[in-house]
Predict the 3D structure of the following.
Amino acid sequence: MIEKENSERELVRQIVQGNRFAMKRFYDDYAGYLTAVSARYISNRDDIKDVLQDSFLKIFNAIHMFEYRGEGSLRAWASRIVANEALRHVSANDKMQLIGLPEEELPLAAEEPEPDFDDIPVAVIQEMIRMLPPGYRTVFNLYVFEEKSHREIASMLHIAESSSASQLHRAKAILMKEIELYRLKIKHDERSMAK
C-alpha cells in the first residue's frame, strides 16, 4: 500500500513537472476507467471521446492542485473532473427532459422498489443505463454513482428537487422493466437450448 501511495505521488509530481512519459502512464492507467465514467452520462461514442479528451486536458492543467488523500484519491479526483465535463456536455447538447412528477405521485423513498442487478453482467447493466433518456440517466448516475442528494442534483442541474426525484423514480422504473425483459430472454434462451 505504501508502494502504491509513493507511486501515485511520484506520478503526480512528474506530471506537475511536465514529464510527458508520466502523462502517458497516467493516461494508460486511467483512460479505461474514466471512459466508463463518461459513458455513464453520454451514449454517443464520439461525444465520449471528446469529453475524455477535454477531461484529460483539464486534469493535466489542474493536477498541481490535487491533494493526495489516500489510495484511490487520484482516481476519485480525476473521476469528478470527467463527470463534471460529461454533465457540461449533456446540459449543452442533450434535451434532458427534466420534467417532474407532481409531488403526490412520487413514492416515498422507503416504498420505492430498487432495481435488482445481482445476476446481471456489468456490461449489460451499463448498456441499460446508457439507453435511459438523457435526463433520467444523468440524475440516476449522479444519485447512484456520485452519491449526490436530490438537493445537490437540483442545484447542479438547475431544476427542482422534485424533478430530480421524479427523474430517478422514472429511471428506476425503466431499469426494472429492462431487467425483467433481460431475465425473461435468458430463461427463453435457456429453454430453447435445453430442447
